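[Meeting: bench + compute handoff]

Bench side (C.D.) handed over the final construct sequence. Compute side (W.E.) agreed to return the predicted structure before the next meeting so the bench team could plan truncations. Sequence as handed over:
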Amino acid sequence: MISRRALTLGLSAIAVGALTLSAHAETLDAVKKKGVLSVGVKADSRPWGYLDPQGQPIGMEIDLAKNVADRLGVKFEAVIVQSSNRIQFLEQGRVDMLIATMYDTPERRRVIDMVQPHYYSAATNILAPKSANLKSWEELRGKKVCGQQGSVYNKWIERTYGASAMSLPTIEEGYAALRAGNCVGFVYNDLLLEMAAEQPIWAGYTVPLKSEDRQYHSIGVRKGEAETPFGKKLSEIVIDWHRTGYLKELNKKWGIPANEYLEEAAKKYAR
């Protein structure tokens, strides 16, 4: 026989769960009601998200965020976030979702939901002076590397290869520290580093190692929202991005090297 206390606790849990689900289920309606989709985006990750000469955010992920807003029939509002604060912005309700170069990791899944399927994939590498003559990851053991605060690359290189990561608030500060000789290299997204290495300012630098630790980018929503109408709608949109080749088109538009994951996903979701 179920005790009155157990029954009361059970009903309370159900009520709290129902309220939570109801609150999340209203996100899509709330966005449509206010007529604006607020999206957390990066402004320091060219070509995914950066500022044009007029100070307006542009880039591949900005295009994706605008596309979501268009599909929902609302206006787009870009909210600039950094790797170190983007999850807090989402949890605090300052944004409705995140499209901010965010890898889908178990650690992040403990506090927010990551929309499936993933919309992009990249791996880890390092930008280093050619004079360093790096041949293997093992050569970084015990050495200081620069990284951006809040990114997954720092912990990975420390855990995997015993390097000492010096976290800087922004990518540009990390690049500046590298140029100043404060570290042996800057650890980050391999595609971004390869594109940077092609710029004249990095003529004496290279991306010397084989990329490792492949990760996948996802849209971030608040905990519990992936299975609500809002999360399911976002999932449908991402599938359509892959199915129609939209992601591949944007990848080319922004001059990003061909991406194997986009090719695979396009075939998987093809009509």
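W.E. noted at the follow-up: Residues 1-24 have pLDDT under 50 and may be disordered. C.D. will use this when planning the next construct.
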